Amino acid sequence: MDQIDIRVEKANDILDTFGQIATWILIVAGWYVVDRQLHKRERRREIRAQIDKCESLLQNLEEIAKSYHCEPIHSPQLASEILTLIQRILRKISYLKLLTTHEYNQNAKAIRRAITLNNFDSTTHAAAALDSQLMNDIGIAIDNAHLALETAFHEKYPD
Predict the structure, then answer these.
(1) pLDDT, tens digit (0-9, with 9 covering 90-100), for 45-79
(2) Residue 5 has what pLDDT?
(3) How far apart are CA 18 and CA 41, in angstroms?
(4) Which domain holds residue 66?
(5) H or E element, residue 110
(6) Contact 128, 70 (CB under 8 A)
(7) What span, in angstroms and rounded, lies between the C-alpha atoms of 78 and 67?
(8) Contacts of 144 by beta carbon, 8 Å cutoff, 6+ apart
């Protein structure tokens, strides 16, 4: 009988040990899952905040560019501000790493072309009408950049 009692006691000790190990495994696995989900949510919030900042800068760029093109004379200060803002926005968009290289290049080129290709040189600058093709092109390029960012965000972080 004593041997049976000893075996039962050892079996109970082994089961207790496995139970404790299983409990710790569940605790660690649960912590890992929660931590990972929390990290993903925080990253999503950070990306969303950066996209909102980019969209605000894009709006600002559109206003400044349209204002520049409506001026009757070339403004070197405004032209410099526009070029700086374009670079700042494109760096922020690149940093997000949401767009493919092709999408990024396509949007960057469209924004630069719409704003600086026509009527940007001081020798050919003339006031553009608000309903001109130039103003329309600027609006379209900015809207396409907004759409590309939003689409990429929703593809990477679906609700």
Answers:
(1) 999 999 999 999 999 999 999 999 999 988 899 99
(2) 66
(3) 34
(4) 47-156
(5) helix 101-116
(6) yes
(7) 9
(8) 107, 110
